[in-house]
Every structure is written in C-alpha cells, then in structure tokens.
Specification:
Number of helices: 5
Largest sheet: 2 strands, parallel
Distance between the termini: 31 Å
Number of domains: 1
Shape: globular
Number of strands: 2
Length: 116
Amino acid sequence: MENKSVDFSSVIISKEKIETIESAMAQLKYNDLIFDTWGFSKIFEKGTAVSMIFFGIPGTGKTLMAQAIANKLNEKLLVVGPAEIETSVPGGAERNIKKYFGMYYLIFLHNIEYTQ
C-alpha cells in the first residue's frame, strides 16, 4: 500500500492519540541517546524496539496510520496478513514472523486476530 502522500492529517484521530504516537516515535529518533548514552539499555531486559497496537473494526484507519508513521519516519512499510504467516508446518509461523522482523524496520500485522 505504499503511498507517500499519507500523513497524520490523512487519519481522523484525536490530538491526544497523535501525541502518544509521536512520543513513541521520539524513542526511535533518540534511541542511541536514551539507551546508550543514558544507559537505559542496562535496565531493559527485552530490547529497545517500539511496538504500537492499533485496534478497531475494518475501515477505521489502522493501516492508514501505519503508513503515515512509516512516511514520517521515512521508512518503507511492510503490511503482513495471516496468509503470509500461517502454515501447517510445525514452527513455521514462528519462522515466518522471525523472517519478516529480520528484514524490515516497520511491519504492520494486518487482520491478525487473537484467540484463546
């Protein structure tokens, strides 16, 4: 879906939520300062990646917001759906996810549902 003209004004979202997203993006921008210079890498056990979860019914702008974030970061967005992850091979889904996370900076997992 790469569309370089998409930005935060393309998505109908509250100012407060935009500010929250921009705060998370600031962690990416200042990653070296926060984790190397200030030493927070010694405190975090599981790495320094930023994760955002967008939830809503189809058509609410989740993919559009992911594209706006990618554009603001000047990164390519990879949109991955269940068909690219699921497999009948034991351990295959985990390998597929690991493959995508090793190749791309920004990944949007599209229409992934959680079931117990």
